[in-house]
Specification:
Largest sheet: 5 strands, mixed, barrel
Shape: elongated
CATH architecture of the largest domain: 3-Layer(aba) Sandwich
Oligomer: single chain
Strand order of the largest sheet: 3-4-5-7-6
Helix content: 10-25%
CATH topology of the largest domain: Trna Endonuclease, Chain: A, domain 1
Structural class: mainly beta
Distance between the termini: 35 Å
Order of helices and strands: EEEEEEEEHEEEEEHE
CATH class of the largest domain: Alpha Beta
Strand content: 35-45%
Number of strands: 14
Radius of gyration: 18 Å
Length: 182
């Protein structure tokens, strides 16, 4: 069991339990071998994850806080892929990017400050609204990348209408004078 781990200086709190992937009966459930038993675990990432979720793949789970609304006792947190830990928690990239914005370690965003996370503009919700020193606004969308081909991270791992509409909405923001990026 891992107590706490840091990924690129971001700590994932709480003990993690090592297991190995068996199967994925639907988009939000993994069956994982932990010790000698198989457990059902919630998976927050609905992506294809074909390269990541392969039989025998080392996974790290967290015991869930008991809730009458949960259908599983565990959450799938990380996978080990080519010697690296890959996040399978869709909220984690936003937490990581927020820490990077706040500490100004992303060079291309060093002149921006956070105005508001989870901001709505028109019919779309964006992960972050930033502002530069001139007061110009920048809409930032963060994506978790789990698909890697020939050492290059690629997004998305499958064509989606939602993703296309989101990219088009960012383009429309740029065309009306805002700054925007993914």
């Amino acid at each position: 069991m891992i107590k706490n781990i840091e990924i690129a200086d971001m700590e994932i709190k709480g003990p993690l339990i090592k297991g190995s992937f068996i199967e994925r009966p639907n988009r939000f459930i993994t069956i994982v071998k932990v010790g000698k038993k198989s457990v059902k675990s919630h998976l927050s990432d609905p992506g294809r994850l074909r390269e990541i979720l392969t039989p025998g793949r080392e996974l790290y789970l967290r015991k869930a806080i008991e809730s009458e609304h949960r259908k599983t006792d565990y959450s799938t947190i990380l996978a080990k892929y080519n010697g690296e830990l890959v996040s399978l928690v869709t909220a984690l990239p936003n937490q990581f990017v927020k820490e990077c914005i706040d500490s100004r370690i992303l060079l291309f965003l060093k002149d921006f400050e956070l105005v508001k996370p989870e901001v709505v503009h028109g019919n779309h919700r964006y992960d972050f609204l930033l502002k530069d020193k001139s007061g110009d606004l920048f809409y930032l969308e963060v994506k978790s990348v789990t698909y890697v081909e020939n050492g290059i991270a690629k997004f998305p791992d499958a064509v989606t209408d939602r993703g296309r509409r989101h990219a088009q909405s960012l383009q429309a923001l740029v065309e009306t004078g805002f700054q925007a990026g993914i």
